[in-house]
Design brief:
membrane, 2 strands, 209 residues, transmembrane, mainly alpha
């Protein structure tokens, strides 16, 4: 990926080179990025979840890859992706348009992101550990089995987007938004689980009565 242009423009150029038909694998996406940073990889994998449309299998594959990126950052070791995960085939005809639509969020965040804003949230070993753990949490939330529920992928994806841009730009404000999105996701999922539990209990009581 060339260094010229904004982050959004660079990502758009990558997505434009991807196939429109057939299947697309995680290894295909990684090949397009070459030796670029892990955060750019995470940004690209996050884009498809920024619109409320579910693509079967994507949240598991991409979420696992983003999780491995978070673990790599936290441990300080090179990224390792299992061959089975890297070779998982996904529908290019649905994935590519989703990636392009998700770029809108990157461009929006680029306009409001400020390098070195609230730098106390992104500088220092302790802050790095906390932020990487929060990044991993967002990836796990993205993989949660709620893909059929509206915005269940969008909320953790927003958290990951904020984190990635915040880490790249050293923007504590963006990282803070990532923490907020993570919190909103936890509240939303808790409400889903709690509501589902109540519905099941009421159903069981009706059958028992």
């Amino acid at each position: 990926m060339e260094a010229e242009g904004s982050l959004g423009e660079q990502l758009a150029a990558i997505v434009a080179r991807l196939p429109e038909d057939g299947t697309l694998t995680l290894s295909d996406l990684l090949a397009q990025l070459g030796d670029e940073g892990l955060l750019v990889v995470a940004l690209l994998l996050t884009l498809v979840f920024l619109i409320p449309v579910s693509i079967p299998g994507v949240s598991t594959v991409f979420g696992a890859a983003i999780l491995l990126i978070g673990v790599s950052r936290l441990s300080g070791r090179p990224l390792w992706v299992p061959a089975r995960l890297a070779g998982k085939a996904l529908p290019a005809s649905r994935l590519r348009p989703g990636l392009l639509a998700g770029l809108v969020w990157v461009r929006r965040l680029e306009r409001v992101s400020r390098p070195y804003r609230l730098r106390g949230l992104v500088e220092g070993r302790l802050q790095g550990i906390v932020n990487d753990l929060a990044f991993i949490l967002a990836a796990l939330l993205l993989m949660a089995p709620f893909g059929f529920v509206p915005f269940s992928n969008t909320l953790p994806a927003l958290a990951l987007l904020f984190y990635a841009v915040g880490f790249i730009q050293r923007d504590g404000g963006a990282v803070l938004l990532g923490h907020l999105a993570n919190l909103c996701t936890l509240v939303y999922f808790s409400a889903l689980i709690g509501g589902g539990g109540l519905a099941v209990r009421e159903l069981l009581q009706r059958f028992a009565g």
